[in-house]
Design goal:
By secondary structure, the chain is α/β, with parallel strands linked by helices. The protein has two domains: about 5-65; about 75-280, Rossmann fold (3-Layer(aba) Sandwich), CATH 3.40.50. About 40% of the residues lie in helices and about 20% in strands. It contains eleven helices and nine strands. About 45% of the residues are buried. It is an enzyme of class 2 (transferase). One of its GO terms (biological process) is methylation. GO terms for molecular function: nucleic acid binding; peptide chain release factor N(5)-glutamine methyltransferase activity. It comes from Acutalibacter muris.
Length: about 280
């Protein structure tokens, strides 16, 4: 069977399995396991890959047809200018999260010090370091499995001043562990209401529930961040969070009641509400 025939077989199998983007996924798997991207499939697809590559490709396609996330199968995924290691136990970095990183980066200056709460793979913290010169970020993560990916990704970019720390965002910072007078706090917290988890796509349901479950109303982590972590910010320091696309009003109200000012909602590339940023008021 030629590489092109394998690609077409994979596309048909993924289509039948209900995968949203069967052509894209089949092409990415071809690139990873057969060593041929879409343009190379057109030019060299009449050649038959060796048996080892063929078996690895077909196994990867079977996993994808069972709705294992494509990112987990590939083992890494791009985010902004970065390539991040991912797998079972850590939330997949999504393009939408760039809206938070870019909006918060616009509020802080060179050498800014801050936290990335619920850090997961480190996408937010490392993303900030990639566009804010000299930024210093502590990435806070509770789950040990996610922490393994976080450590791996931080090690991948030694030029960034980024380090990992264990911490439970819902419990708040431990005395002496986290610095005060921070310039910013960022977070892509769990924000899906508990009752909505069962309705998520099969792929998303294979991601860690710890990184998805935002409590009964989806707002549990926002309240904890405002109550327990925001006091670490200096007056005028920036707070930025990712939100679900229907949560802008509720989250901005929480920010306002907590004394934050200059509250702004930012949209993702699809035009949906995706992030909220604000400045700590002088009376907070």
């Amino acid at each position: 069977m030629t590489a092109r025939e394998l690609y077409l077989r994979a596309k048909a199998q993924l289509t039948k399995a209900g995968v949203d983007s069967p052509g894209f996924d089949a092409a990415r798997l071809s690139e990873r396991f057969l060593g041929l991207d879409r343009s190379e499939l057109a030019l060299q697809g009449d050649k038959a890959p060796d048996e080892k590559k063929r078996q690895e490709f077909l196994e990867a396609v079977s996993q994808r047809a069972e709705r294992r996330p494509l990112q987990y199968i590939l083992g890494e995924w791009p985010f902004m200018s970065l390539t991040l290691s991912v797998g079972e136990g850590v939330l997949v970095p999504r393009e939408d999260t760039a809206a938070l990183v870019e909006a918060l980066a616009a509020r802080i200056g060179k050498g800014a010090r801050g936290l990335d709460l619920c850090a997961g793979s480190g996408a937010v913290g490392l993303g900030i370091c990639s566009i804010v010169p000299g930024a210093q970020v502590i990435c806070v993560e509770l789950d040990e499995k996610a922490g393994e990916f976080l450590d791996r990704n931080i090690a991948r970019y030694p030029r960034f001043e980024c380090r990992a720390a264990a911490g439970d965002v819902l419990r708040g910072p431990e005395q002496g562990v986290f610095p005060k007078e921070l310039d910013f706090i960022a977070s892509n917290p769990p924000y899906i209401a508990t009752g909505e988890l069962s309705a998520l796509q099969p792929e998303v349901q294979k991601e860690p529930s710890l990184a998805l479950d935002g409590g009964g109303d989806g707002l549990t982590f926002y309240r904890a961040i405002l109550e327990k972590w925001a006091p670490l910010l200096r007056p005028g320091g920036a707070l930025g969070v990712e939100i679900g696309d229907t949560q802008a009003r509720e989250v901005t109200e929480l920010f306002a009641r907590s004394g934050f000012v200059d509250i702004t909602v930012h949209k993702d590339l699809a035009g949906l509400d995706r992030a909220v940023t604000a400045a700590k008021g002088s009376t907070v």
